[in-house]
Structure formats: structure tokens, C-alpha cells
Amino acid sequence: MLPYGRQSIDESDIEAVTRVLRSDWLTTGPEVAGFEDDLAAWTGGTPCVAVSNGTAALHTAYAALGVGRGDQVVTSPVTFVATASAAVALGATVTFADVDPQTANLDPEAAASALTGRTKVIAAVDYAGHPAEYDDLTKIAESAGVSLVADAAHSIGSRYRDRPVGSLADVTTFSFFPTKNLTTGEGGAVAVRDAGVLTAARRFRTHGLVREPALLRDPHEGGWHQEVHAFGLNYRLPDVLAALGRSQLRRLAAFKARRAHLVARYDELLAGVAGLGLPARRDHADPMWHLYPVRVRDGRRREVYERLRAAGIGVQVNFIPAYWHPAFADLGYRRGMCPVAEAFYAEELSLPLYPDLTDAEQDWVVETLAGILR
């Protein structure tokens, strides 16, 4: 089965991992700090905190911003459920605002309309790698006195108005799952502009431990002493995985170029295919394309999905609207809340897109898809 996405691993990645396996540090060592520094080169210098996965990154981001019981988080329904569930885990109420019909990113006007006096965070999602409208969202967040989070699980390496993702919001989260733009196997990161929030994120990532002598409440206990002033979790990323991430970052520009080449070929080869809508791109965006999401018209999405998979082409649907999950339905969320997002979901189909996809394999995808739609 040709997958819709997969990792690209070469000998340099393997050598980076084996070098750490032969070292004294498997976790909580120098590769983690090095990976965080390397990531900051892609976020415009915004400091980064490496964590164990993308969901941990979201949980850490919300916790560091002080999200808690009674707070509201406004976000997009066109996302993996973790964007919302990580806020619910902290006791917040999630409000889903509708999306732009072209990019499927959070609609700034819809987000502004969803704000209340309890709003703590607006969380945008860079769907498929295309950055959300951060200038508009920043103005809305600043006017309301709330924080702006960028869920950039799809978009490390993307740029918005010539500024890198990671520098566009108060806090940005990344995912390094194997299907993403680079991988650490499992892993994630949080990029944070404010020094106080950065410290809170680093502590939350490591159980909430405080070790600085000047901050200890009982500093005379002994050299071994450490304290927990606010609870955190163990979201540390091992050095083995950080080393893989550092190696992958050295190829991120090449990954972006290859993905752009494949997207341009899809755009050209699928232009004019009846019953198919191609992904939109704003002139001011330079996406690191994570997905190639087409829209299958005329109610044929399920048919096309099943026929492509039967042919050995592993297309995917990204995503079921987050509030359709039974866990949200049980909390009182109902279908119909975000009609634009639901219309997008009804037609969306992600075609295979990853750096090692060959032109010949892509031609097969295009020919099979066009044949089904004739």
C-alpha cells in the first residue's frame, strides 16, 4: 500500500542515533539542548522546549499559559482532536469557531465572534502546512487581552509574510510524528516568546521540578534537593530521539523543496479534472506542505477513497471535525456548529505526499484518481 505520508530516513539519521546509543546519555542530555537550539534556527530565534510528542506540546503550551478550570479556549474544528482535548484536560471549555472555506484554517472573524470574558487562548491550526492568518489573529488576541497559540504540527518550515512559523504567535507547538515534515519517531516542541512562559513550559515538561537555589523554599536541605512548586508531567524527549531530530533538521530545506515539487506536479496534473477541487494557497504564504488535500465533489468522496485504497493507494481523510468525536458529543457538542468545516470534511481527501514519493508513483496516483472521476 502506497502510504499518504511517511518518514524519510537515511544513513546520516542512523549514524546520529547510533552515536548517542554509544554515548553516556540516552535521555536528558546534550542532544536535547542541541535540538532545541537547532529548532530555534527555524523559528526566527524563538526559544524552543523539546517534549515527548505533539500532544504533550499542546498540553505544555496551555499549562504554561495558565489555562485552567473555567477558562475558554477558542480553536478550529479542522484538526486532530489533541488541539482541543489538551485544553479540556486542564479543565478548560473549548469553543470551536468555523474555518475559511478555501484554506480550512481558523476564520479570524469567527474566532473573534466566539470570544467571551472567559477566553484565555485562541489556538489556530496551520492546516496541511498553510499558515493561518496570524496578523488578523494577533490583532484580535491583543485587543481581547488573550494569548495566541499556533498549532504548527503540520507547518514547521513554513513562512507567513516572510516570517517563519514559530515566530508568529505567543506560543507555537510542533509535532515530529513519522508522517510530519520531520520526525523524531515520537516527539514535539514548544516555541515560546515570553521568558516567563518559557520557564513555565520547561518546568511543566519535567514534573514541575525547581532546582535553582535562589528559588527553593528550603534551600539548605542539601545539594540533592529539588522541589515541585506546581505540578507538571514527564514530557521529556530522549537524547536518542533528539539526535534523530537534529539530523532531520539538516535536511528540512530539501524536504520542503521536494514537497513543493510534488505539490506543483499535482497542481499541474490534476488541473481540469472534473469533480475535483485543489488546495488553495494565499500569495503571502510559503507553505511547507504536509498534506495535499483535494476536495472530491458531488458526494463521491467515500467512493473515491475506497476505490483508491482498493487499488493500493493509501489516501486518508484529515480530519473528522473535532467536536464530532463521542467524547465531545457527550459534553453536549452537536453537529452543525461549524458548517463550513463540516462541508470541507465531507469532501476532503489527502493524496500521498512525502519526500521519498517518486514522480512515477505520483503519476500512478493521478492516473488512478482521474480514471475514477471520469
From TrEMBL:
Cofactor(s) named in the record: pyridoxal 5'-phosphate
SUPFAM superfamilies found in the cross-reference section: PLP-dependent transferases
Entry annotated with the keyword DNA damage: no
InterPro entries xref list: DegT/StrS_aminotransferase, PyrdxlP-dep_Trfase, PyrdxlP-dep_Trfase_major, PyrdxlP-dep_Trfase_small
Record's keyword terms, sorted: Pyridoxal phosphate
Origin: domain of life: Bacteria
Family in the record: Belongs to the DegT/DnrJ/EryC1 family.
Name of this protein: UDP-4-amino-4, 6-dideoxy-N-acetyl-beta-L-altrosami ne transaminase
Organism listed in the record: Luedemannella helvata
